[in-house]
């Protein structure tokens, strides 16, 4: 198993929770914003999906690009399709990374003001995912979901 | 540097955010609960402090004990003292762990239904901290804090 494949297992412990958590939401919850100026539920999920994919792509290719697109998901089914699509392409990128790539440096000056190793970038991506997933659990409770999954899913 | 000391750096990237985040709160925010049955702000912070310390103690000593005590903090100053006290003793335990200890197994049947290595337990502790810190950021926004720190503090 490569370093990236070991990392993938630790990332999927968290990403695998997302479909179940999203399945607890109703279509009307997608535009919910808990305070003025907050990301809506759908935008919070979109931020998780695109950030994790963007950081992974930077780690895997050495080039960081911000995502610009932001679809206005009207229902949970469409949001779940995006979760699946982004998870698949994020997993494929991580799975393809040889150890030399994980140890290589990536220019993240635009965001962190410095270079970081691809491995460090993947860890930051994972931390960012857990942070926002924690927020999404709170959103779910606030819209009235009374039973949420564990925050970690073990394979 | 030992394995535990490297881990400690990655843990402190998150724990170091807590004093600044808590400093944004007012005394009245400590008993705020965002939904019926939710942990109050003070109880959420207490849960983070005691869980991280409890998991660390289990990792460092091989024995897991649940924390029973739960002080009803009346002001932010007292809560900050607890943050400092628990951070100090958690750091001291991690800092003391030799590599053999990190690789040793810990009986976590009571919680996870299985044994896990002390190193895995520390990682789970860190994930749990990030998860609930994400929730605490949401609490802070909900009580009206309009400027929050970055979710990671780099040393």
Descriptive notes:
The structure is a homodimer of 155-residue chains. The first copy, chain A, has 155 residues and is mainly α. In chain A, helix 3 (41-61) runs antiparallel to helix 7 (118-142). Helix content of chain A is 61%, strand content 4%. Chain A is globular, with a radius of gyration of 16 Å. The two termini of chain A are 16 Å apart. At the A-B interface, helix 1 and helix 7 of A face helix 1 and helix 7 of B.
Unreliable segments of 5+ consecutive residues of chain A: none
The percent range for helix content of chain A is 55-70%
In what order do the strands lie side by side in the largest sheet of chain A?
Answer: 1-2
Largest interface: A-B, 23 and 24 residues
Gross geometry of chain A: globular
- For the secondary structure, the number of strands of chain A is 2
Assembly type of the chains comes to homodimer
Percent of sequence in beta strands of chain A: under 5%
**Cα-atom Rg of chain A, whole angstroms?**
16 Å
Q: What's the average pLDDT of chain A? A: 96
Layout: helices, strands, pairs:
The structure is a homodimer of 155-residue chains.
Chain A (H helix, E strand, L loop, with lengths): L2 H13 L1 H7 L17 H21 L14 H20 L3 H5 L1 E3 L1 H4 L2 E3 H25 L13
Antiparallel strand pairs in A: 1-2
Helix pairs in contact in A: 1-4, 1-7, 2-4, 3-4, 3-7
Q: Quick recap of the structure?
A:
Two copies of one chain form a homodimer. Chain A has 155 residues and is mainly α.
């Amino acid at each position: 198993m490569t370093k990236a494949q070991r990392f993938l297992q630790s990332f999927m412990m968290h990403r695998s929770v997302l479909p179940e958590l999203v399945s607890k939401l109703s279509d009307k919850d997608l535009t919910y914003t808990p305070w003025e100026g907050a990301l809506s539920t759908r935008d919070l999920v979109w931020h998780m999906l695109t950030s994790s994919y963007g950081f992974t792509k930077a780690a895997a290719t050495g080039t960081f690009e911000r995502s610009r697109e932001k679809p206005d998901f009207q229902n949970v089914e469409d949001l779940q399709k995006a979760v699946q699509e982004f998870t698949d392409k994020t997993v494929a990128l991580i799975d393809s990374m040889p150890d030399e790539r994980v140890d290589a440096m990536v220019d993240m000056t635009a965001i962190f003001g410095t270079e970081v190793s691809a491995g460090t970038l993947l860890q930051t991506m994972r931390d960012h995912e857990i942070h926002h997933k924690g927020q999404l659990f709170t959103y779910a409770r606030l819209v009235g979901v009374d039973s949420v999954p564990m925050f970690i899913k073990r394979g």
